[in-house]
Design goal:
This protein is of the alpha/beta class. Helix content is 39%, strand content 12%. It contains seven helices and six strands; from the N terminus they run H-H-H-E-E-E-H-E-H-E-H-E-H. Strands 4-3-5-6 form a four-stranded parallel sheet. It has a two-stranded antiparallel sheet with strand order 1-2.
């Protein structure tokens, strides 16, 4: 009997296979995790699945970048930029929307933001013109005095390069530039801290 070439699949109906493939495109989700999510959705009530699908479509259709700070918004201008109670003369510069959200969760900052959407990374071919850097300088050169720019880029090689670039660009404008302090985490022990963290903590010490 002749050997037949059988087309082997994954044992899933085509609709499930397509869903697994689409979920696996998301960052941090492999094929196994995508399969678990697909089976979870399959076992959920229909109304919950419809609500999820509708929320995804609504997000894609309505969420845009704020025309001023370039954070996420469902209006041309986000709620933070449009809030008269915020300190509009203090701008906190962050790399991405997730960083903005992290600072907002702390509920200690009352100024406004500017989202760069990345950091300077020459090895990856990312320069200042690939970020929202020109837009930041335009905000500082426009009407309305800005008394301080808080540089809150990440403590990485790329983040530090971006911070130094911004600081140099601000000098001719006469705008005060500050950098987020870095040091020991709350509840942390000295013996478990690395040398870079200890150095930052010592350099950023303050009087009690």
């Amino acid at each position: 009997m002749a050997t037949q070439n059988l087309k082997r699949g994954d044992g899933l109906p085509p609709a499930m296979t397509r869903l697994v493939k689409e979920l696996a495109r998301l960052p941090g989700i492999g094929e196994k995790t995508a399969s678990r999510l697909a089976f979870n959705l399959l076992n959920r009530p229909r109304d919950q699945v419809i609500a999820l699908a509708e929320s995804l479509l609504e997000m894609k259709e309505r969420v845009v970048l704020c025309s001023q700070c370039f954070g996420l918004s469902d209006n041309p201008r986000c709620g933070i930029c449009g809030d008269p109670e915020r300190e509009h003369d203090v701008i906190c510069v962050v790399e991405g929307p997730a960083d903005l959200m992290a600072i907002e969760r702390a509920r200690t900052f009352g100024g406004v933001y500017h989202v760069l959407h990345g950091a300077i990374a020459p090895l990856d071919g990312i320069g200042p013109d690939d970020l929202k850097m020109n837009e930041l300088l335009a905000r500082l050169s426009g009407e309305g005095a800005v008394r301080e720019v808080i540089i809150a880029t990440n403590a990485t090689v790329e983040g530090e390069a971006t911070a130094h670039y911004i600081a140099r660009a601000l000098k001719p404008l006469g705008v005060k530039a500050t950098r987020l302090a870095r040091g020991l985490p709350a509840g942390g022990d000295l013996e478990y801290s690395d040398s870079a963290t200890l150095t930052s903590a010592l350099n950023g010490r303050r009087e009690l």
